[in-house]
Write a structure and sequence with these properties.
Layout (H helix, E strand, L loop, with lengths): L4 E5 L3 H13 L3 E5 L2 H11 L3 E5 L7 H10 L5 E6 L3 H13 L5 E5 L4 H10 L1
Parallel strand pairs: 1-2, 1-3, 3-4, 4-5
Helix pairs in contact: 3-4
């Protein structure tokens, strides 16, 4: 198992796959999921050191997943992304930080490849 393991959850499969490919190129073991339920299953299989999470998804939104991550005692790197108002990501960030998660980065779509690489390389 790699020291850098990334789990992506985004209901846009193309975006999740793009993040996965960029992360793999940076030395991550990476997996992309498209639903909250698939994310939860993959979380227990992969034991991620980094998570990239979309905020607005149909079945389970980012806030619900942040709360679930806190129940799992997740304490590593969290990158929260939204294609809607940046306030969605900021609210989830505050929720995560309030619950003890200190490494939270928020990004707004569209995200350039250079910025994505920068964030994944620095965390």
């Amino acid at each position: 198992m790699s020291d850098k393991r990334l789990l992506v959850v985004d209901d846009e499969p193309e975006f999740g796959e793009l993040v996965r490919k960029v992360a793999t190129g940076l030395g991550y073991e990476a997996r992309a999921t498209t639903t909250g339920h698939a994310f939860q299953i993959a979380y227990h299989e992969l034991h991620p050191t980094h998570i990239v999470m979309d905020m607005v998804m149909p079945e389970m939104d980012g806030n619900e997943l942040v709360l679930w991550l806190m129940e799992q005692r997740y304490a590593a790197n969290l990158i929260i992304i939204t294609g809607y108002s940046p306030d969605y990501a900021k609210d989830a960030s505050v929720l995560a930080e309030f619950n003890g998660l200190r490494s939270v980065i928020t990004l707004t779509k569209p995200i350039g490849l250079a910025r994505l690489r920068e964030v994944l390389s620095s965390s």
